[in-house]
Structures are given as C-alpha cells and as structure tokens.
Structure prediction request, 596 residues.
Amino acid sequence: MYSFSILKHLLFVLLLCCLSYAGSAQTLMQKKVSIELKNKPLSEALKAISRQGGFYFSYNSNIINKDSLVTVSAKNKTVKQVLDQLLGEHCQYKEADKYIIIQPAEREKWYTISGYIKDANSGDMLPDVSVFERQQLASAITGKDGYFSLQLKDHKRYSTAEITVSKGFYIDTSVSLLKGYDQQLELMIAPETYSLPSVVVTQHSGVERSWLGRLFISSKLKTQTLNLGKFFVDKPFQFSLTPGLGTHGKMSGQVENKFSFNVLGGYTAGVDGFEVGGLFNINKKDVRYAQFAGICNIVAGNVEGFQAGGISNHNNLKTTGFQAAGIVNSSNNVEGAQAAGIVNIVVDSVNGAQAAGIANVAKYANIQAAGIVNVAEEVDGVQASGIANIADTVKGLQAAGCINIAEDVNGVQVAGFMNIAHKVKGVQLAGFINIADTSDYPIGLVNIISNGDAAIGASIDEYGHTVVALRSGGRVLYGIIGAGGIFDATTFRYAFEAGLGAHWRLHKHFRINTELAALTTTDMKGNAFQDNALRVLPAVRFGPLEIFGGAGFNIAVYNFKPQQRFGQGNTIWEYEGKYNYTSLRVGYKVGVQVHI
Prediction:
C-alpha cells in the first residue's frame, strides 16, 4: 500500500511536468485570447492582447498607426488570428523571448525571362512568336528580331516555372526555368514536318474579323489568337481597360472568366457568369447568364441567359434567353426574347419574343413586335408593330399602328407610342403611354391603369437634385417621369428624370421599390450631367402618404472639367478625361409621395 501511494504521487508530479512543458512549448502566436472592442484605438487593442497573452509588442510607428480606430470581436482565438483580423496581410510577425515583433510584409518579387527565338532549320530569328507562362498567364510576342522579354512573379504559390513557345505551323516547345532568377535564353523551334490541311475557319476565329474586332483588337492580340488557337484556360475574373490592357494582358483572348468587368471594352475567350463592358464586349466562344455593354456585344459562340447592348448584339450561333439592343440584334436562332431599338434579324426561327423599334425580319416567329414593320413568313403567337405587320401566317394576336387598341390582350401588347386595352394579362409595352383597366406589368413612362397605382412626389439625392416626379403603373411595374433642378446661391440647373421601376410588396404598410432611371441635368449653357442609377428604395406607406429612401449604383458622366463638378458621392471608380468625367459610385435618394 505504501509503495502504491508513492507511485501515485510520482505519476501526479510527472503529469504536472508534462502540462508545464506543453504550456511552455506553446508559442506566443498560438496563445488564445478573447477581446471585444468597438471603435477603439489600435494601441488599446494591442495592449489588451499583450496583457492576456503575457508578452509585449514591438513595432515601428511608421508601420503601424496606433491611433487608428478599430473594431474587433474574438472569443478564444489565437493571437495570430486576432492580429490578422486587425492588420490584414500587410504585416508579418516574429517572436523573440517575450516579444512579438510586427514587421511589414515582404513585397512580391519579380524576375525577367528574355531572349531570342530562332527557326531550328534555318537559324533565322522568328517574329510574331508567342511566349507564355501558363500559371501566371504572362505572355510576350517576339519582335522582328525574334527578341522577347517576359516578367514573372516570384510568388510562393508558384512552385515551378515553365514557358511555352508557340507559333502557327511550328511545333509548340516548353522549357522549364530556374524560378526566381533573371535569365536570358536562346530557343530553337522546329517547323511542323507533316503536310497541313486546308485552313478551316472556326467560331473562335470569327470575332477578330468583325468590324469591332478590326477596330479594337490589336495586331498582337490577333497574332496571339493564331498562335494559341487550341489553348484555353478558366479564371475566376478579369478586369480590363481595353482589350489586352488588363489582368490577363495579351492572354485575355485565351481565358474564359466567371466575372469580367471591362471599363471601355473587353476581349475574352468566353464568359460563364457575368460580363459588363463600358462600350463593348468581344467573346471568341460562348457566353452564359448575363452580358451588358454600352454599345455592342459580339459573340462567336452561343449565348445563354441575358444579353444587352446599347446599340447592337451580334451572335453567330444559338441565343437562349433574352437579348436586347438599342438598334440591331443579329442571331441565327433565338429561343427566348429578343429586343432592339430598330432591327431584329433572325434567319431561321424565333421561339419566344422578338421586339424592335423599326423592323423584325424572321423566317419563323412566336411573339414578334416592331416599332414600324414586322416581316415574317409565319408567326405563331403575338405580333405587334408601330405601323405595319407583314406576315404570311399569324396565329395569336397581331397588333399594329402608333396606337394599339384592344378589348382584351392575353399575352404581350407593344406600341411605339400608346397602348389602349380593356384588360391585359401579361406585359403592356409602350414608348410613352399605356392605358388599361387592368395591367400589372406596364412598361412605359406614363401608365394610366384604372386598378393600378399612381403617385406624385418629390425626392432629393446626394448631388442635391430635387425632382418632382409621377410614378404610375400596375401592381408590379411602373414608369417614372419627372423634372426639377439643383438650387443653390449661385446657379439653377434644370433636371429631367425618366425610368422604370418595380414594386415588391412585403406588408400592407411596407414595400421595396427597385428602379432603373436616367437623370439629366443641364444649365442650358452647354454643361450637362448624365446620371444612370440602379437603386433599391424601401418605402413605408400609411394611407395615401408614402415615404421612401435607399441607395444604389450610379454611373455619372459630365461633359465639363472635373473641377467644375458639383456634389459628393461614395465613388468606387472614376475616370477623368480632358473634357469629361465619368464615375461609378454608391448614391442615395430619399423622398415623399402622395398616391392619387
């Protein structure tokens, strides 16, 4: 018994020693702390962490702004996790005795691969050869002297480096590199020895020859496409200013993106998600889900989803979904909806809805609408036009003229100026006025609906635009038309607003209004301001009175110098030209209106 008692005590002492060793072996960065601070100086947060951890911080005040206000919430987290939350990836940490030393993170290093590419048979320098690195999507094209220069990142995530040399009618050649060091190479590539078949033009080689491709795609990008015709890669996103000037550089035409944002225009292999271009988008393969451009979309492959261009959309293959353009849509086959300001051209068939400001041209159609003329061999559904319809066979509803007048509409009613109907089940679309007893989905600036919703009110935005507007429509969609200005001590600028909106009713006293609107301000002396907004406006209503307010994304364009611009906004992106200023920002709008 006595020896057993001694053994128990010895085991207990040994356990304490092990626990003590484990505690002492724990690094300072692994210690657990809990901290709750809101809008407190960074120095106070660091002191709280050091007190709990039983150590001290050491840092240079030029690196860390100890007076900056921070908010942190951490419960039983390691010191490393809390520091990452406070300081992000801008710092690195070292431990010394009872100190944690905060240092700036190491900057990313670059190294250069350069050299000459020669013909293996003749020894001649080869121009227009593509040299690229697959992981980083870095690329270069040799000049007339066969010289290239390629910059690569010396990043930890790139464990190896390899360049590929490619040129039409030559064998692709890959070379492994010594990572992280400047190197100069002299590479030989051999011509392909077998007989070549006739050149076959595929969908991937068409967009470069389009009018927009010839205008905006440089000769180097076209050379890259010819050299790398079989090489394509997927990436999560692209950001570009113009084709070839962006995150993927001269490799943009070989990359399919989930998200592509192009300030002026973009050139990609394809999109499987969302793409927006300030002026244009050019895609060598397929586009899925959503694509928007200020002027034009050109797609060599299929389009599936929603596509909108300010002037035109041109798709070589099948379009499934919705396609809208200010002037022309051109597609071989459409399944869904197609809309254009002037002309829709479909050689084979339309299975859905087709709308145009002037004319539709289709061999077969289901729902067809035009501002002036419809031309179709057969229409099975609804055909509407501003002036005339031309068709061999129409099954369903056919409407024409500047004004559509109908007792009942089961489907879609479209007119260049005015629609008049007793009951509308579906969409009622007019350039200016819709009139109906019942219509839930009118699309027009002014909608006179007996069982609908109309209100007159005033609103103000972050620029000081005070606008009195009529919002009229049905249970869901409504139109916006208004006028006002900016009042201050020195000037009065006239403002005009127009747009479309949708009601989302959540409660009898509460709903959310979403609006897409354009507001133009001018001083009638040549200075103008164009503000296009997509906004979300929660609203509270009691009786006829409704108060609304919210925020949204705004694209603003001025035609005068930036120093003359007025107002403030939360700017996300801006561009200042010699005579104009463009910005993307988060704006707001508040107002009150009375339902009539």
User: Anything to note?
Assistant: The chain has four domains: 19-104, 109-189, 205-374+389-397, 453-595. The longest helix spans residues 2-25. The radius of gyration is 32 Å. The chain has five helices and 41 strands.
